[in-house]
Model the fold of this input.
Amino acid sequence: MIDAQGFRANVGIILSNPRGEVFWAKRIGQQSWQFPQGGIREGEDARDALFRELEEEVGLRPEHVRMIGATRRWLRYRLPKRYVRRNRRPLCIGQKQKWFMLELIAPESCVRFDATEKPEFDGWRWVDYWHPVDEVVFFKRQVYRLALDELSDCLKTQ
Done:
């Protein structure tokens, strides 16, 4: 779903543990790391997309997590020009994301990357809450900073 401005609707997932660390996933076959995220399908709301993506990307179901927060508004980032596929219609220039903060309440062994035929990740680790801002690809840093800043109070109220 791409809006009139060219932004694809998407959900971002920040999964935490009781120590306040966050789940950091390694893209398959690469040395790049990110939070799980994914597009919202036609007719799907953000919450439904969140749980579908969570299961597809990391094998976790709703009963494995507890929702502890969500951003109030869409957070947007633009793709660098070299990543914009100009031959596609509608043209996508970036993503608008609704971010969700979850806490893992199931054993870590429930995390798995084989829930789909085409896994996106092949590794993960727990990292310091603010670590992702420094390690994620440069064009996502501001969105990560905004999401983590807005949702940081969720961990404090645990």
The first strand starts at residue 7 and ends at 16.
